[in-house]
Amino acid sequence: MGRKSEAREKLIEQALILIWENSYHAVGVNEICSRADVRPGSFYYFFPSKEALALAAMEQHWQQAKEEIIAKAFDPSLPPLQRIVKLLEQVYQFHAARQKGNEPVLGCAFGSFVGELGRDDRALRERIHAIFMEIGSYIEQAIREAREAGDLQIAESEVTTTAHAVLAYYEGILLLARAGNDAQIIQDLSRYVLKLVHSA
Question: Residue 116 — pLDDT band, cuts 50, 70, 90?
Fold first, then answer.
């Protein structure tokens, strides 16, 4: 059972890397199996389709992101608005380390992934949208706490919309960083995020 579990984890790991670096539709089951060193016949023991594998890969990546980035950024001990800045700092450090190791700057896995999905990829689109909304909920909570503490002068009715604007800004920064293969873009633009919040 240990070897079977290891094969499944290898498939998930390599699927995420290949899809993130290339694209969902460009990567086939055989290529994923080759990179994972798992026979195609074994693939279907774990996953009924490439879509099912992609969903598992996105889910595992989200769980890792919550542990390694979200939990540190949205630490309740930090001042509310500082948590949003910390999120961008954490993401910058991740991509800067990749770039230093001569790895490409890939931006947001979820944003890169969903940008190429079509109408027929409904399950994947819906799951990634749900993940975006979950990220947004952390941002929204920080904005709400800042408002309640008197650090932010916006109407209650604007809290959710402001959080979505910050999420869109965050995703846009990561898209630019991917396009330019430059992690520095994340750091350069992160200092404007609180201006966006205060201008709401």
Answer: confident
Binned at pLDDT 50, 70 and 90, residue 165 comes out as very high
Task: Decide if 193 is inside a domain.
Answer: yes
* Cβ pair 128, 110 in contact under 8 A: yes
- How many structural domains are present in the chain? 1
Q: Is residue 35 part of a domain?
A: no
40: in domain: no
State the average pLDDT over residues 169-195. 96
Query: Is the confidence at residue 4, as pLDDT, over 70?
Result: no
Helix (H, G, I), strand (E, B) or coil at 179: helix
Task: Give every CB contact of residue 8 below 8 A, 6+ residues apart in sequence.
Answer: 46
CA distances (Å), origin 51, targets 4, 115, 120, 140, 154: 20, 16, 11, 31, 42
- Angstrom distance (rounded) from CA 61 to CA 68: 10
Whether 3 has a pLDDT exceeding 80, the answer reads no
From CA 104, how far away is CA 98, in angstroms rounded?
7
> Residue 181: which CATH number?
1.10.357.10
